[in-house]
Amino acid sequence: MNKNLYGINAQVESLLDNSVDEETGEIQDGVFEQLQELALTKQELIKHTSLKYKDVLGEINKVSTEIERLSAYKKQLSSLNDRIKRHLSANIMEGEKIKELEYEISWRKSETIELDDITFDIDKLERDYPECVRTKKEVDKIALKKMAVLPEGVTKITKQNIQIK
Asked: Which of 17-31, 71-85, 114-128 has the weakest average pLDDT?
C-alpha cells in the first residue's frame, strides 16, 4: 500500500476503474472495504501532515522570536561599539597614530555630503542636475487590486490559500 496522499488517490481511482464487472455493472466484493481502509489511511496521513505543519510553524515562530532577540542584542552591541569609537575619536588627536601589540589606531580621510534642512531644495537640484537625483519606480499592487478596470498587461488572479490551524 502506498503511504502518500498522491498514491492513495491513485489507488482509489484504480479501484474505482477496475472494480466494476463490465458484464453486469456490479461492483466487486470487498471494494467498499478497501475504499474505506484507504479513506482511513488518507485521513491519518492528512492528520499527521497537518500536525507536522503546525510543529514546523511553531519552530519557525521560535526561530523568528530568537532572531528578533538576537537582532536587538546586535543593535545594542553596535550602538555600544559606536559610542566607544566616538569616545576614542574625541579623546585622541585627529591624525595621531597609535600602534601597540594588541591594537592599532590610525585615521583615513573620507568625504561626505550634508544637506542643509533649511536651504536645500531637492526640486531645484532635480531641475538643474537631474543626474544627482534618484527616483525609484515600483508598482503599487494594492492600488491595482482596488481598480475596477485594470490596465493592459495587468491581471487579477483569485487564488485559494490553504489555512491550517
From this structure: 17-31
